[in-house]
Amino acid sequence: MERLQKVIAHAGIASRRKAEDYITGGRVKVNGEVVKELGTKVGKKDLVEVDGVPIYQEEPVYYLFYKPRGVISAVADDKKRKVVTDYFAAVPERIYPVGRLDYDTSGILLLTNDGDFSQRLAHPKHQIDKVYVAKVKGFAEKRTLYPLTKGVRIEGKKTAPARFEILSTDKKAETSIVELTIHEGRNHQVKNMLAAVGLPVQKLKRERYGDLTLKGLRPGEYRRLNTKEINTLLNQSKE
Known about the structure:
Its EC number is 5.4.99.-. The chain has helices spanning 4-10, 16-24, 115-122, 142-145, 189-196, 227-236; strands spanning 2-3, 28-30, 33-34, 41-42, 48-50, 53-55, 62-67, 96-97, 105-112, 130-137, 153-154, 157-158, 163-170, 175-182, 201-209, 212-213, 222-224.
């Protein structure tokens, strides 16, 4: 038996807190009866409806995916471009990405059918490190990148402090390889941060998410997270 709000969150309908609002607002039925008690528990055989629409109580699943470049971080695309769930045709659960990676960015992307887990990891106040490796135009120097450690202003809002490491420079090609560690997840954040210090990104890859890496995977491949990895992520994302 699981708490009703957790079942709704697992189904990807809403975060657990939003699900609680649905319950207290009388929008949820269990076996045809409106339920407003937050302590209500339901089993696999119970019929749960939100706004009159039945939800299916799938077992929660969690995947680590090596997203290739040129793939949309979504479950569908109106322009018929390739999306990440196209790689999961053999997975019966209705999974979706946790956060996103840009179309032309490769690397680690998590997918799940657990809405509560997704909301928790994606929330900006949960400071899980994400490590990116970028090929940039220009000669990277410590003094150039130093402002990122204090935060830079993008679209009127200052970013949280980041950590950087210069992996290599190519004076002849006038390019550099830079590793950047952040814990926020704004739209195009890494590209915008590096552009703000005069190093426009040519190629970008997310190498690490918390303690998770791409070890053993090639672009387009995925694996299930084990219990230890899931619990570690949840512990890292504690408020």
